[in-house]
Amino acid sequence: MPTRLAAAVIALVTAASSALAGGCAVLSPADPPRTLRPAGDPTLGSDRAPTPLPADARRVALPKPDYRYRFTKDAGEDDFNRVYRGVWNPYRNGEGKGKYFWTISAHDGVMDVRLPGGDTSGPGAAGWFGPNDLEAGAVTSITLKVVPGQGYGMSVMMWPTGNEPRRGEKNWPEARFVQSPLAHDHATGARCKTDLNCPDVDSFWPAVDWTQWHTYTIMTSTTGTRYLFDGVEVGSVVRDPIVGPHRYTLQVAGWKNSFPGHVLVREVAITR
């Protein structure tokens, strides 16, 4: 899938530019994007640090999910896609180097994306959960934790099913595992410079920990998007609502000289 990268975005491909100078990569039209931002991303300000959550924050009431996915049936890496067909919808990566989703299994009530490490990039995971026709008003949540593998990162996003970035890309959580996760709310419509390039982004960087169980929620509406952490709002944007059908996508990938680890997903919830 074609994708734009904001200034200073690191692409999860070997064609990425330097870590802080930014770059771009064009993926095949069949594949969603793979983009992560590094620590110190200049789009956030080079001296910016994560923002602590307010001590008196109140939880936001969430609607009852239409879909709740748990991983209670064990499945090996060779069988996960069959056992969880329709729950997890994998796709090939953008460079034709194989399939990211070969390292996923289910055990002990979790979806386990194994990060094997090594001296070459990938593999990891690439796919979406459940339906691919979510519209403005949809609420998506994922409960996960990371056993960090240095050199890996992840993006969970609402991505346009038609692979048109100007219809709205909403990322949360997204980052390399060496930093705390960020939320990135990308421009839509006329604010995109081209069909493949929507660099204008509102970003939120709460001081939270990948390595503990937490729930990350994207609440879309016809006027904008809210981002929640364990039910507490960490940022909101009252513009650039998603347009047309979207899918709730997860991408995990690594760089060269990475170290083994795991991304563990306990639950995914989707409300139309």
UniProtKB/TrEMBL annotation:
InterPro entries: ConA-like_dom_sf. This is Glycosyl hydrolases family 16. Residues 1-21 form the signal peptide. It comes from Microlunatus kandeliicorticis. PROSITE patterns: PROKAR_LIPOPROTEIN (PS51257). The keyword Oxidoreductase does not apply. Residues 29-54 are annotated as: Disordered. Transmembrane segments: none annotated. The keyword Protein transport does not apply. Gene3D superfamilies: 2.60.120.200. Keywords: Signal.
